[in-house]
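User: Here's a structure from my thesis project, written as structure tokens. My advisor, Dr. K., wants to see whether a designed sequence matches the one we expressed. Can you design one independently, without my sequence as a hint?
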């Protein structure tokens, strides 16, 4: 899925918007911050998992996400010195390193590994259509989901049945929900770190504002996800989209999407909290720019 690309566009909007607090869904972010590696996994299963993550293009997408987050952090603040920007880039680069995010996601797949479902999903990604779709996703440009992204698609690319298939992919794959949760995780950490205690609402009020902001943002991100998928998959036939939707909606597909989405949100949340905590000390003048 192309949620990682939409995250970057959403962050670009959020960093320059007037700053209502925003949050990730608490149910997605609660739980242990450390994960234990399982003791007994066969070599075959480990090899199959590595193949699956490679075929999915995860490493490349995480590298794109990491680079994009760095750019958005540097664009967001207003008046900063060159030294401050170097410090910000160093901190964000370390905390949002693609290798660290990848390692956490892989470890979570190990903990939740289902050999039968893994085999089915890997078979899909190894198929000609699966490989083609991964290639389309990796080649998709970052878009904010605006009018420019729709121009040139053609009326046949916007037909009701096609739109319905794209909506199935969004719902089944959790693209919009995960995108908003990832985006809000970053903004929530920044808000809590940089908003002065004297002006910060009570904990209950803050959570209420977080929930309201998430609901407002979800509509915008859902639109961006749908437009992004329409553009990325424009060369696919409706039959091919139907096959992809069936995979996403299958038991094996839901296992894959659930582990991937939940772990991505948690990994980004951990990175965002660490980034915000370090930035408060290293670049305190960000107060007022990122809150």
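Assistant: Designed independently from the structure alone:
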């Amino acid at each position: 899925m192309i949620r990682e690309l939409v995250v970057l566009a959403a962050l670009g909007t959020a960093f320059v918007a007037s700053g209502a607090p925003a949050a990730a869904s608490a149910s997605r972010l609660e739980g242990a911050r450390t994960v234990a590696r399982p003791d007994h996994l066969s070599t075959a299963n480990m090899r199959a998992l590595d193949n699956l993550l490679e075929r999915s293009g995860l490493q490349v997408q995480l590298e794109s996400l990491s680079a994009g987050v760095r750019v958005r952090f540097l664009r967001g603040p207003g008046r900063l010195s060159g030294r401050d920007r170097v410090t910000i880039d160093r901190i964000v680069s370390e905390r949002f390193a693609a290798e660290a995010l990848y390692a956490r996601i892989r470890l979570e797949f190990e903990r939740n590994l289902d050999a039968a479902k893994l085999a089915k999903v890997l078979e899909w990604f190894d198929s000609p259509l699966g490989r083609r779709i991964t290639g389309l996703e990796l080649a998709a440009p970052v878009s904010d989901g605006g009018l420019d992204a729709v121009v040139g698609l053609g009326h046949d690319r916007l037909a009701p049945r096609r739109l319905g298939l794209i909506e199935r992919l969004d719902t089944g794959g959790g693209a919009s929900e995960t995108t908003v949760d990832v985006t809000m995780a970053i903004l929530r950490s920044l808000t809590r770190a940089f908003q002065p205690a004297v002006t910060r609402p009570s904990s209950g009020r803050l959570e209420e504002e977080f929930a309201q902001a998430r609901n407002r943002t979800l509509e915008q991100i859902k639109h961006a996800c749908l437009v992004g998928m329409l553009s990325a998959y424009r060369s696919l036939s409706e039959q091919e989209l139907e096959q992809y939707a069936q995979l996403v909606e299958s038991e094996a597909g839901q296992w894959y999407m659930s582990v991937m989405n939940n772990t991505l949100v948690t990994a980004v949340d951990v990175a965002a909290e660490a980034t915000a905590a370090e930035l408060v000390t290293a670049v305190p003048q960000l107060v007022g720019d990122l809150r």
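When you compare it with your expressed construct, this may help: Residues 12-35 have pLDDT under 50 and may be disordered.
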